[in-house]
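Sample intake — RteC protein
Collected from: Pedobacter frigiditerrae
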Amino acid sequence: MEKKYEVLLSKLERELEDLVELGPLDRMRSELTAVRTSLGKLQELVLESGFVSQAEEVLFFKVVKPRFYSLMVLAAERYGFEMARPLRKGKGMDAFYRRQLDYISRFFDQHAFLYQYYRLGAVELDVLYFVRGGDVAGIVGADLPALDPSFTTLGDYLFSKFIALERLRELVLAEMEVPSLAGSGVVRSKKGRELRWTGDSCNLIELIYGVFDCRQVNDGEVDLSDLMDVFEQCFQINLSRYFRRFTEIKRRKSMSKTRFLDQMARMVNKRIDDGDAYVPMSMR
């Protein structure tokens, strides 16, 4: 993503981080205002500078704009989720969570072709979906916003919605009080040793996000929640609040946001350097 877009997005994300302590309604209103302002600036940049190639236009409407617009969709979706949440925990709460997950799944099913296109990172139809000039009025979506043909393509809104709903799903799963370790046997090494994660759970969450975002499992075709489940079972640790813990990671001010990954890199490099420095006694 171009530097000018990165700067604008980083500024927006910082603004949104400052709103997390507000009540649901005030937070949503403030978030929508902030995102709309940033989208307006983004549109000005596009209309002023244009694109030097069709590939650049595709990249903008496939990747850049959805990263902004998804934040607006997420703000509205999260508000609806929080307002509908039952006041008391129990079976009613479990049913509520399941309904939320079903709602998300139905949307993905309704747009199954384009959702798979999004998940697979396909490119064959990019010119159709992410170059302006298509029939945007034909996009299916009851909550479709007012469309400006100079700043809209067939696919950018739905890609934004996919990103937002995947993040909403993470939020729902993080809130669900599911005993993910129940019924699972203790994982042991071949030597029979029982293995447990004894470090800070936040460090493990940081590591798992790295594995997920680098698409190291199933060629990237895996849900973040599935990875969390596997690591929970392997290391006998509760990661049910991983979404909130990752929010804490993003809000770090006095230390690196990737503190644990940075530490791992230093220690691996030290091991490599120490190994290179080793000289057997027979060679001295």
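Post-analysis note: The two ends are 52 Å apart (CA to CA).
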